[in-house]
Amino acid sequence: MAFPEHADYVVIGAGIHGLSSAWHLAEKLKEAGENVEGRIIVLDKSGIAAGASGIACGVVRNNYFQPAMRNLMAHSVGVWESDPEAFSYHPVGYMQVSCELMRDDVGKIFSEQQAIGYESIFIEGSNTSMSYMRGLFDDWQAKGITSILHEKRGGYANNTKSIYGLAKKAEDLGVRILTGVEVKGLISENGSDAVSKIETDHGIMTCSHVIIGVGPWVRDLWQMLNLPKKIDVKDLEGIVHKDIDMWRFWQLEEGVLQVKPETLLMNDGKPPPVIHVDTDAPLISDVDGSVITDHLWGIYYKPDWHFGGIQGGAAPYKVETQVDKVAIDPYGPSSPEFVSSPEFAHMWVSALAHCHKRFEGMMPKYHREASGGIGCFTADSFPIFDHFNENATVIADSNHGYKMLGVGHLIADEILGEEQELLQPFRFDRFEKGELHPVSSSPFPWS
Does pTM surpass 0.90? Predict the structure, then answer.
């Protein structure tokens, strides 16, 4: 089939956001009685789920200290629940297990979840928390835990399966997905900022609207729109910080303990919720008894039959060198190795043993494989969902992305003229206005 000369809507990126946007846009047009065939085209330089979406841990949660994030995630969880089979979604729930330093933050999250009708329970006190966890896992032994937020909704999805489920929904409605097509430029003409043409390595096509949902490659497309590399940021105290980098890159480390997923079943034989532990109890090596850290640390983990073991991760670290190379191809041969490091493996497996006796002596079972990858974060580590240059929509998820399945729904509504309240807190002008999101005590940069 010949390369198309025109599409009304060109979506760049065949991951969670691009495909979700294309699906919902096609659905809206169909509902309005319009023809979809040939009007929506998705371009991806590699393939469906070839980037961050394809190796995502897949956790779906509402555990956010920021009200805007919490409201947005409640909407997205509803989309996951709308078709669990198609999205390979497992609604097992989610647990935030925390030390005293985070108790007030997590208690606030719980209170505000109740206010929006999001089902969860909150356990406080060290003895009560230990009893609750021992009721689920008889070998629970984590120290310094004084609160637990147990979200009854949420869970996890199998990464590539869910993205292919999205692709099928889009294609069934008439969306065309073209893989192996790399975007080289966004062209404006006749003194207008609007994108009139998409330059690719297969040719040039005209468009009426472009949607950018490319995950860690967003900086490159941002530059194609001639948007700023550095910005001024007004913080919550009204202080203006000059010439802040618009984009930062973090190495995300995840891994798999290659044991039967059934190793982490609960006392009742059922799969557990996704577990996230943040604690300031000293983390002792399960290999040699040394102190790995005596500062606040955090991990997340779950049994995962798709990964074939216990899968999870820990806090990422900044990529300080070769940023230009990373930005060009975060997952290609020129990027830093994105399998987890030996240091991560030592820390993560020791942390599992800190939490459960059953994982003691398991270090030889750790399996290094592609997981985590490079994440592209905004100046404040929260997403940007906004419209630029008259007809360009940018979905910059700041590595919160995979769980936000519902963003595409909201983006499609806005493109068709219905402004969405849930997206308002994520506009680009928040940096200038000082309307930033509050931050918690979590060791993770996205919280």
Answer: yes
Contact between 77 and 136 under an 8 Å Cβ cutoff? The reply is no
Alpha helices (runs of H) in 83-217, residue ranges in sequence order = 103-115, 126-136, 159-172
At residue 303, the 3 state secondary structure works out as strand
Assign residue 41 the CATH number of its domain.
3.50.50.60
Domain count, the chain: 2
**287 and 371 together in one domain:** yes
178-236: pLDDT as tens digits: 999 999 999 999 889 999 999 999 999 999 999 999 999 999 999 999 999 999 999 98
Rg (CA), the chain: 22
Domain with residue 368: its CATH number is 3.30.9.10
Residue 23 CB: number of other CB atoms within 10 A?
Answer: 26
In degrees, rounded to 5, the angle at the alpha carbon of residue 205 between the alpha carbons of residues 204 and 210 is 120
**Terminal C-alpha separation, the chain:** 46
Nearest to 221 by CA among 6, 394, 7, 439: 394
Residue 14 domain boundaries: 1-91+156-242+381-447
Same-domain pairing of 303 and 168: no
Co-location of 14 and 145 in the same domain:
no
Q: Domain end: 355, 377, 399, which one?
A: 377
The predicted-structure confidence for 423-437, as pLDDT tens digits, reads as follows: 999 999 999 999 999
Q: 165 pLDDT exceeds 50?
A: yes
Judged on CB neighbours under 10 Å (0-12, 13-18, 19+), 265 is middle
Say if residue 316 is exposed, middle or buried (CB neighbours under 10 Å; 0-12, 13-18, 19+). Answer: buried
- Strand, coil or helix: 31: helix
Same domain, 140 and 165: no
**389 and 321 together in one domain:** no
Q: What token pair was written down for 129? A: 């928390």
The token pair at 353 is 């043993």
Contact between 166 and 23 (Cβ < 8 Å): yes
Statement to judge: residues 86 and 99 lie in one domain? no
Whether residues 187 and 86 share a domain: the answer is yes
